[in-house]
Design goal:
The structure is a single chain. The protein has about 325 residues and is of the alpha/beta class. It has 2 domains: about 160 residues, VC0802-like (2-Layer Sandwich), CATH 3.30.2130.30; about 160 residues, Vaccinia Virus protein VP39 (Rossmann fold), CATH 3.40.50.150. About 30% of the residues lie in helices and about 30% in strands. Strand 15 and strand 16 form a beta hairpin. Helix 3 crosses helix 4, helix 6 crosses helix 8 and helix 10 packs parallel to helix 11.
Length: about 325
């Protein structure tokens, strides 16, 4: 039996449990986080979670400590060493999350990091080969360790990922940043810069990010875009709805759609634009889950899109609210 710390959103926590399998045992912790007790080995569980929609992160727990206080962190460092949980030939980094706890995340990270370095382990904050997850809920600590290439996402909360970001036009920017990271699109965007269509662009958060990747962006929305973008190079701002404009024979290397529409309307627009998307190119879009019947929405969306697109990934991101984000690729 392995215990997994499992992350999802508050809204879709029960859906996440269903994706793992109702035959497992669950214990709720805080917000959308819970423990999963399962006979499934870590490699299979992580693969299953990676293919899920509503599980945002998961790791096996190797050390659990109740009545946690800061002095115990030295013992935990020794336990990691004695249990051979960390490879001394590989570098590590510590990720922390605290909730309703007296000890601060930074104190946990520093104390454990210093102890492990004293023992002989090598820390690397930029490109670690191993990640240590430390979650402290009230006075209970959960610790897991994974190879970096096994990790679903290298952040334990949206606050950890985006708290230091500045000059955001809107929350929507976080969604595209996270989608690029989770869908592993960074290299593709850098190497395949071209022309993009941003549907529902106002106030311009997604357009701003694509401009940073040197795309030329057609930003389409009846609403206003931020003044900082109006004179930007490589932007064509069209203050209309997408169904009000004639794209003629324009071809795009990427289509984005974050418009606030019903699922059927959003998928209908993307399908109508498939002739304007180059073969093999991507679509990144959000689907607003407008009712509690999530399964019905998902089935309709998949059916509507599957004739023209390969559905590569569907994920409820940390940055999503009552919506999901999809990555599609044109197949014909």
């Amino acid at each position: 039996m392995t215990i997994y710390f499992t992350r999802s959103s508050v809204i879709f926590k029960e859906h996440a449990k269903q994706e793992i399998g109702i035959n497992n045992e669950f214990i709720d912790l805080f917000e959308g986080n819970f423990l999963t007790y399962s006979d499934m080995p870590p490699n299979k569980m992580i693969k299953k979670a990676d293919g899920s929609i509503f599980i945002t992160n998961i790791f096996p727990i190797y050390i659990m400590e109740s009545e946690m206080h800061i002095e115990k962190i030295i013992e935990i460092g020794n336990d990691i060493d004695h249990g051979n949980l960390l490879d001394k030939e590989k570098t590590f980094k510590i990720l922390t999350l605290t909730y309703d706890a007296d000890i601060q995340s930074r104190d946990l990270e520093v104390k454990l990091g210093e102890k492990l370095e004293d023992i002989g382990y090598l820390v690397d904050f930029q490109n670690p080969e191993q990640l240590i997850f430390l979650v402290l809920y009230k006075n209970e600590l959960y610790l897991g360790i994974l190879e970096r290439d096994e990790v679903l996402y290298e952040y334990l909360s949206p606050e950890k990922r985006f708290s230091r970001e500045v000059n955001k036009l809107n929350r929507g920017e976080n969604k595209l940043i996270e989608a690029i990271e989770r869908f592993h699109l960074e290299r593709n965007l850098k190497e395949n810069t071209g022309i993009a269509l941003d549907i529902g662009a106002s106030p311009g958060g997604w357009t701003k990010i694509l401009l940073e990747y040197d795309y030329k962006v057609y930003a389409v929305d009846p609403g206003k875009i931020d003044d900082s973008l109006k004179d930007a190079k490589n932007i064509v701002y069209i203050r209309k709805s997408i169904d009000e404009i004639d794209l003629e024979d324009k071809q795009f290397d990427l289509i984005l759609n974050d418009a606030n529409l019903k699922p059927s309307e959003s998928t209908g627009i993307v399908n109508s634009l498939q002739d304007h998307l180059k073969e093999g190119s991507f679509v990144i879009m959000t689907i607003k889950l407008i009712s509690r019947n999530v399964d019905r929405h998902l089935n309709e969306v998949k059916e509507n899109l599957s004739q023209n697109f390969e559905i590569i990934k569907i994920k409820h991101l940390d940055s999503n609210r009552q919506e999901i984000t999809m990555l599609l690729r044109k197949i014909k």
